[in-house]
Amino acid sequence: MNGSAASVPGPDGDEERVLAVLRRTTLEIVPEVDPTQFTPDRTLSDLGCNSIDRADIVTLAMEELGIVVPVHEFHQGLDIGTLAAVMRKRL
């Protein structure tokens, strides 16, 4: 077991969990989003989510993850990977 996943199991698992929750909530709030376009390097805006959609996605994701992230930690234009990292720090 010399793979990188074995050396850092916690953060990798948490990252995957947060990304899965963000993906699921995004597709729930904005079902017309193409799931293949949901990648860490894209923003929710890139996917066609408006400001209300983005707020709903983040709120639902935080509720599902059982976390609270202060609003000032979310900056407009955060890519999905960075958004997930911000949330993962609160797990």
Individual helix count = 4
In what range is the share of β-strand residues?
under 5%
Order of helices and strands: HHHH
Task: Give the terminus-to-terminus CA distance.
Answer: 26 Å
Structural class: mainly alpha
Cα Rg: 13 Å
Shape: globular
Helical content, roughly? Answer: 40-55%
Uncertain segments of ≥5 residues (pLDDT<50)? Answer: 1-10
Average pLDDT, rounded to a whole number, is 89
Number of strands: 0
3D structure, described in words:
The protein has 91 residues and is mainly α. Helices cover 54% and strands 0% of the residues. It contains 4 helices and no strands. The protein has helices spanning 4-7, 9-29, 51-65, 80-88. Helix 2 crosses helix 4 (80-88). The longest helix has 21 residues, at 9-29. The two termini are 26 Å apart. Mean pLDDT is 89; it is low at 1-10.
